[in-house]
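User: I'm putting together a small comparison set for a docking exercise, and I want a reference complex before I start. The sequence is below, and the ligand is nicotinamide-adenine-dinucleotide. Could you produce the 3D structure with the ligand included, as structure tokens?
Assistant: Of course. I'll restate your input first, then give the structure tokens for the complex.
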Amino acid sequence: MKYPEVKNYIAGNFSSNGHKTLDVLCPSDGAVISKVPLSGKDDLDQAVKAAQTAFPKWSNTPIKERVQIFYRYKTLMEKHLNELAVIVHEENGKTMDESIAEVAKSIELTEFACSMPQLVAGEVMEVSAGVECRVEHKPLGVVASIVPFNFPHMVPHWTLPNAIVLGNCFILKPSEQVPISSNRIAEMLKEAGLPDGVFNVVNGDREIVEAICDHPGIEAVSFVGSTKVAKIVYKRSCSSLKRCVALGGAKNHLIVLPDAHVDMTASNVAASMSGCAGQRCMAASAMVGVGPIDPIVAKICEEAKKIIPGKNLGSVITKEAKEKIERYITEAEKAGAKILVDGRNAKVAGSEKGFYVGPTVIDFVTPDMAIAKEEVFGPVLAIIRSKNLDEAMEIENSSNYGNAAAVFTQSGALARIVMEKASAGMIGVNIGVPVPREPFSFGGWNESKFGTCDITGKSSIEFWTKLKKTSTKWNPEARTNWMS
Ligand code: NAD
């Protein structure tokens, strides 16, 4: 095995729990590269105890001191960027360039957390004669994050720097498919000086997720993954009276108008549908072409053909994922859609056992087809034709999801209609992957997110803290009335 067996990280120690393990595969060649323990409730109990023990001291450390550790951590990530990217590349299957971009995004997220002291300064006001009221953000206690396979390094950084800088103690449950990055995150946080018990990792699958939702010692849970599991986690965490934000799957619509800039639109759409092999919750999955857009479709196909599996296109996560994606393509074809670029049966010389799907463009998909409605999570673009913008908006609005939507046009007025009418949390105008960068927050609508706050940016401050409101009076000569 290329990597040592993944361990849990509890109270500053890596430990093997002696439970069953799962193989960790490199999706690019199918080789077993590590093993991951499937932890049980006892392991979670230990992690919660470690976090509870660390909490009083950590939460009483001034935020300006807490943040110094993250400045050091950020520098360590910069120094080890390539090494961290290699782990992402090998456990997830995305390309090295994408892996480097992923770690760079973790660095940006950490940079935002470092600005937290400037953002959470409290408020104070004289609210009646001689009486001051002050409001402070206080940490919640022990919190947990459950993360998916598609960004093994970045998605943990959506939550861990903010939650920890804000004074919480943290338990990470990595995806059992890509658990290696999280062990390296733990090592580097320790090297940066984070006290033991403030950050913990408990590996496992469904059993440990359910234990997190139920655990009385955990105050808040963030989840990122499929909508099916987001619903389970949200309901179960809320029923044990926890705060929860649960981000789910997506079906993002790119609305392409006939006046769109052909080259720019085609390269954006092709990059959006194929980046990270389409395994992004912000990927373009359905394109709604309004009116005469044949030249743009032709150019998208040209761009798609430049995307070569094993070169500038990574693998998908498992053999099952590959089969599922290819099934969607075949079913769309059977239902009457036209395959313009076919990525089925992709083979990469020297990596024959890798889980590759080539870029795929399918035209004349109709809104009732499964490929138009369901999350495919592969490098596949389904093109739906619509007569006019109203019809395009109806198609976009009818989706159960609502992560992102984008419009491609040169008309500000038409773009404005999409900006206003799209039923999605993140909107792009001539941008195929409209991820809001810090300090703006990340979060979708509808079945792409359950819970009130967004998961990153300023919005996350509300999620990871509770407000303390204190009224003070030091002047006994002040008049007393019912307000003071
Ligand atoms: P997943 O839902 O299968 O798994 C996510 C996490 O839940 C993992 O840690 C896994 O161990 C756990 N889990 C899986 N099945 C479970 C069950 N039955 N009960 C309890 N826990 C369970 O998701 P995935 O396949 O790892 O990731 C891909 C999905 O994540 C896609 O749907 C993608 O759109 C979504 N995603 C969404 C966002 C977003 O911001 N909305 C971001 C990234 C990924």
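The longest helix spans residues 41-60. The two ends are 69 Å apart (CA to CA).
User: Thanks, that's exactly what I needed.
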